[in-house]
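Could you help me review a protein record that somebody else here produced? My question to you is simply how this chain folds and whether the tokens agree. Thanks in advance; the entry in question is below:
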Amino acid sequence: MPLPTVSRLFRSALRTQLVSVANVTTKPAKHTVTAGEQAIAMTALFVAILGPSGWVLAHLEDYKKKE
């Protein structure tokens, strides 16, 4: 019998309106982002995330040494 109770709780949780943390709107963007700006942003993101992990993986054998 716990299923109807859980489904009622889930349904009531979906009905409640939460305070939005981010200011999300469905309006068109005020400033269009060009393809060049997107490419620069994606490159910076990949370098920032994949650069350090790639460094660690490339030097994994050096880190295994017990000097």
Remarks:
- The CA atoms of residues 40 and 46 lie 10 Å apart.
- The longest helix spans residues 35-58.
